[in-house]
UniProtKB/TrEMBL annotation:
The keyword Mitochondrion does not apply. Its cofactor is FAD. GO terms for biological process: secondary metabolite biosynthetic process. This is Salicylate hydroxylase. It comes from the Eukaryota. Keywords: FAD, Flavoprotein, Oxidoreductase. Belongs to the paxM FAD-dependent monooxygenase family.
Amino acid sequence: MEAMFRAYDTVRPPRGKWLVKSSREACEIYEWNHPDTMRDWDKCLKDLEERSHKIWDYDIEEMISCLEAEFADQIQSRLQPRRDPGLPRAVAPLRVKDAIAT
């Protein structure tokens, strides 16, 4: 579970932070207070369309691929053999699907 949450914390927050910031800025645009658009309707419309499409057209499959790769890296790093020869060797590296099943 720890590896799963670490992978999530690595991949997901940048989009979440962007979404919060973008929502605040969209509010400013709707209220004609955003410094880049002010009361210029064409600029407002263009900005809001770009923000909306960034949300609507987000590549979820790519995010899932990144999460799977990061999860595999997290699992792999936990299964690395220890350097102390007196300790038992780590088990063979697991595939991501095997790690999820356990």
